[in-house]
Description:
The protein is mostly beta strands and about 450 residues long. About 5% of the residues lie in helices and about 45% in strands. The protein has two helices and 37 strands. The protein has helices at about 1-10, 365-370; strands at about 20-25, 30, 35-40, 50, 60-65, 65-70, 75-80, 100-105, 110-115, 120-125, 130-135, 150-155, 160-165, 170-175, 180-185, 200-205, 210-215, 220-225, 230-235, 250-255, 260-265, 270, 275-280, 280-285, 290-295, 310-315, 325, 335, 340-345, 355, 370-375, 380-385, 395-400, 405-410, 415, 425-430, 435-440. A four-stranded antiparallel beta sheet has the order 1-2-3-4, with no helix packed on it. The longest helix is centred in the N-terminal third of the chain and has 9 residues, at about 1-10. The protein is globular.
Amino acid sequence: MKNLLNLLILLSVSSFNAQCWQKNSGEFGLRNDGTLWKFSYAGYFQDLTVSQFDTDGDWQSISQKASVLALKENGTLWAWGNNFFGQMGNGQAGFDNYINDPAMIGTDTDWAYVCAGNVSSFALKTDGSLWGWGNNSIGQLGIGSNVNMLVPTKIGEASYITVTSGYYNTFAIRNDGTLWAWGYNNIGQLGTGDLISRSVPTQIGLDSDWVSVKAGYNHVVALKSNGTIWAWGSNNNGQLGDGTNINKMSPIQVPIGSGWTKIAASGITFAVIGGQIYNSTSLAIKSDGTLWGWGKLGSGHPATAGTYLFTTSPVQLAVGIPNINNLSDNDTEYMATDTNMYLISKLSDWTSAMQIPCVELSLSPNDLDTLKIYPNPVNNIITITLPHSMVGNPEYVLYNFSGKAVPLKSDNGNIDISRFESGVYALEITIDSNIFHKKIIKN
Length: 443
């Protein structure tokens, strides 16, 4: 039993699928081989250059806004970039305290999720505990005060599954499916039905079926387990998608039915050229792989002649690009398909996209000949690619935190774990007399 619990906390996992890009955040892209790449531009998002950021190949997750937070496969937490308000979590802060290279935060090895904010930082541990640090001028750290924290500080005793950071406010979903908010609330963006800012987590409504939440600059979008999308806060550019420009202080359902799988909301976009763009955009991916958006679409850069598309109702974007399955997690600059990543939010009309192909960065044969599990964290279906040298029939067993074993059935390497509760599990794979253990995070 003790060994199983250790596995749940300490084991790392690699990700792989048909696309070479696993995740994007801001200027950085994470490949499925665990390498981290940086996207650079010669000018206003023209002449894209992709280069490897460092020599490590064990990155698991990344989040960027003003600063960068990242996780390694061993569960350690790393940061670099802007440290004006202590976002690095290293006990220091200041306008001359910029960190150029990844630096490890503390020595803990049980970090599971990261969320970089504009002036604050947040992370979840494998036990579901939520931690925050950095600027806390309006209570956005949720610790009951307005004192900045220069090291990771635990936010209450509740267990959470995800967190997102807006403009001096924070939103998170607990493991019971309830939605909570705290921080700045000048136009009702906390969704609590009033204009009162909070310094401790405050529940939004009574519903317990929330599965995802994304905060923009002054608006928020959230996804329920039934596939419906809800929004609240500022609606000056139609970013709530209800056909109006009226702000909302409580969640309203975006009138686009159900069947939605991913959401994103833009906030302050820190451009590679150093400027800031205050966007008010909402995006969503439908179960058929199409991308939809509403609000203020387009960049307004000289390269696009200052053109914007304003829409108060959802419209389909990137028409002609099939099987879109992911969006970047903060400023919605990128989307991914089964084969490529695309730059989208810097385009004026949003009907096409700049392709960032995989061909030049294809995986080596050695990378392919290893056990791969993806996506991880996972919502419903997890896919397993076995080493080429193994030809037997694999057996799969999933262990929860209490050590309970549940045999799993595979459909050509695809395993449905949607019935399991959110949390951390150990997957045991037995094939050709070999036994593998991998950590699985179920959203």
